[in-house]
Design a protein that fits this description.
With 154 residues, this protein is α+β, with helices and mostly antiparallel strands. It is built from 4 helices and 5 strands; from the N terminus they run ααααβββββ.
Amino acid sequence: MKIRKLVWLFPVLLALAPLAVFAQETPAAPPASGTPPAYQPKFPGDPARSDAEAEALGYMRVVVRAQKEYNKKHSHYAETLQSLVNTGSFTRRMASTTDRGEYHVGFKAKKDGYILTMTPRNLDAQHRSFYADEDAVIHGDEEKAAGPESPKVK
């Protein structure tokens, strides 16, 4: 008779067990502070200092590779970003706007090359400006607009 009275307790305990496990696994929220979480590198040797920089540098790498491929095929560099569409992994969407999140794209054709710049809305240690040209080296500067004399981004 006592066993029958306790039988209802078994399904109730089974229903509550996942809640107890979930409560143990849920980490406590970190204390709120004014500083954003530290940047997590996207790959070994990632030179970016923030997610916005990682996106800007990724865009630049795609343009630089597309320009190399375009030059190999046409014996000259593309004169517009639109000309690079479908070259390498450069897409129509990438050419459709010069607004890339927290950065603005600058592109200028030269006689035997091009200049590509990425300028942040707010220049600071986590939002450097970037510069690249036909030599395919990306330069960065956290104090002013980057140029060919700016330090190379490692």
